[in-house]
Structure formats: structure tokens, C-alpha cells
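Researcher: Next entry: PTS sugar transporter subunit IIA (Sanguibacter hominis ATCC BAA-789).
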Amino acid sequence: MSTNLITPGLVALDLPGTDRAQVTRALIDLLVAEGRVTSAEGFLADVQEREAKMATGMPGGIGLPHARSAHVVAPSLAVGRVPAGVDFGAPDGPATLVFLIAAPAEGDADHLKILASLARRLVHESFRDSLRAAPDAETVAEIVTREVVAS
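Model: Predicted structure:
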């Protein structure tokens, strides 16, 4: 992959927000600022269409919105910590960690590979805790790169 999946610029440590649309939009804005997404509104519509099909909340306080989109120029992962929690439809309650996977429309294999690799790590409480305790965006990006991308 020529572009790093995640960079410190794609990490938000203390996202405000009380609903999934607000939190998702804040992460999309990071993707736009980093040149990974060409249209915030277009990608948000694609993510919301995907969310309408099935909730993307996972046990352990995880939100995992994702979509393939013509508005995405490179496979990317934006991560946000939401201290107040936001409902992504998980059976055990609100998400305090949100991972937005953005994949180009033609990137089906990349999208599924990222999703599967991330999901395998997220079942481990130690991985989730390390992200919640990380002191800065650089550390979050490093942990995700080491545990998800390199594995």
C-alpha cells in the first residue's frame, strides 16, 4: 500500500458528539483534511447508507462504520475516542472508540482485509485499552499500524 492506512492526522482523541452522524462527520472531516476523501457529503451519504443496512457497533464499546465510495482516493482508517460514548447499535451499549474505514469504490478486497484485521484485534481487551490510554494521536496511529496493518 503506497499510502499509510492511518496517520496521526486521522486520529481524534476527544471527539464531542452525541450521535453517530456527528461523530462520523468529524472523522470524515479528518479524512478530507488529509486528502483521503474528495467529498465529505458524498462519503457521509455512503457511510449512512451502509449503516442503514446493519448497525456497526461491536461489543467492547466499539463503533466500526465503513463504506466503499467513489469519494475515497486511498484506503484509510480514521480513529476517534468519544469519552461520552455514542450509540452504534452494539448490544452492550455505546461506543467510546470509533473506527471509520474508508475504501475506494473499486477496493473491495482492501476494505474487507482492513475490516477483518481490525475486528480480529478489537476482540482483545488489551488492544482496546491501549488505544483508550494512548496519550496522543501519534501513539494511537503507531499502535494501530503495529497491531492491525503489520499483522
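Model: Note for the record: The chain has a mean pLDDT of 91.
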